[in-house]
Amino acid sequence: MPPERLGRWIDGFAQRHGGLSVVRGPEVVHLTGPDGAQAWITVPFPPLVPGSSGPALGDGPRELAYDPVDDLIAHVLRPRRIGVILVRRGGHASGVFEGPALLSSKVGSRYVQGTTKAGGWSQQRYARRRANQSRAAFDDAADEAVRIVLPHAASLDAVVTGGDRGGVDAVLADPRLAPLRALVTGPLMGVADPRLRVLEASPALFLAVAIALDP
Prior knowledge:
By secondary structure, the protein is of the alpha+beta class. It has seven helices and eight strands; from the N terminus they run αβββαβββαβααααβ.
């Protein structure tokens, strides 16, 4: 869910289910209605710090106000500077965002052969070539992350990643990127092709609030 809609959604949950009780944790906020309906809101960019709420700017007027969730609303709407690293075997993208606005970026690609059904010695030679191509592609991605994201490390609130898990891990294993590893948060974003338009659209994924419902 887009962060700017969360306050209205919580109000709607309370209206639909006849009220609201809240158990607030550092990573999950649990809502329960008198009729037994439940919702689990995953806190983006945890932890959620109690007592940190301020004006919920950008959320608009709320018909209902529930003090236990004010901290969550303020936390979700707080502007953040986020580093983004997207890696797949044949392409990569690095960027720095201020909220949803892209401040700096670089995308690139490198040819990596696909799989083959050949066997024997040809298969082994092919596998070595593909492994070398993949390693070179990941080295390129690490170089770009060093140039684009690393200079902002001291001012970043978090780093989010997407693409192929093995590729992302290979890039972040670069010793130069050690300052970014402690900032990585959230699930791996599913991106098929790390192009500029995909990077520009990534705030819709990393700023979204995940909600699980029962029923």
